[in-house]
UniProtKB/TrEMBL annotation:
SUPFAM superfamilies: DinB/YfiT-like putative metalloenzymes (SSF109854). The lineage of its organism: Bacteria, Pseudomonadati, Bacteroidota, Sphingobacteriia, Sphingobacteriales. This is Putative damage-inducible protein DinB. GO terms for molecular function: metal ion binding. It comes from the Bacteria.
Length: 166
């Protein structure tokens, strides 16, 4: 019997639900927020190692990707990447932006349908991949940059939050 790709997809069991994926992502976002909080104000904006960007700059990148990315996916509006629009001058402002972005992610996530995950989307007009790969990129990129934050905090003598407490 010949089976089509569509029939195979329909027979495949789900490993993780849409709500579980959002909870996973928001768990990472909660942990990254705690890393931001752990930074001393001055070092958040000035400290780096080996020419890497400061954690404020990395945070601006994360803010420019997650909420705008999921909004674009849901609305099908391709907007350019705009990191400069997410920059702030105090850690408190970054935390406020972080919380607003979390709310935006939750709002737009509720508008996603399961069938949307397999559709392609041209993220920021640069990367055309299935929606699920874009979302996994949001999470992977955040974990990567949070790891840099952990290195910075340890170099500053600050104990970072436990990575498993999301």
């Amino acid at each position: 019997m010949n089976t089509t790709a569509q029939e195979i997809t329909q027979e495949t069991k789900q490993v993780i639900s849409q709500d579980e994926l959002l909870n996973h992502w928001q768990g990472h976002r909660n942990l990254t927020r705690r890393v931001i909080e752990a930074f001393p104000e001055k070092e958040f904006f000035e400290f780096s190692i080996g020419g890497m960007r400061t954690f404020a700059e990395l945070t601006a990148e994360l803010l420019a990707i997650g909420a705008p990315g999921i909004k674009g996916i849901v609305t099908q509006e391709v907007q350019p990447y705009q990191e400069d629009s997410t920059k702030a001058t105090t850690k408190a402002e970054y935390l406020e932006k972080w919380d607003k972005a979390t709310s935006v992610i939750n709002d737009y996530w509720s508008q996603l349908r399961v069938e949307d995950f397999s559709k392609t989307f041209n993220l920021f007009g640069e990367y055309e991949f299935p929606v699920i790969q874009n979302i996994l990129y949001f999470i992977d990129n955040e974990v990567h940059h949070r790891g840099q934050g952990y290195v910075y905090l340890r170099a500053l003598g600050v104990e970072p939050p436990f990575f498993w407490e999301r």
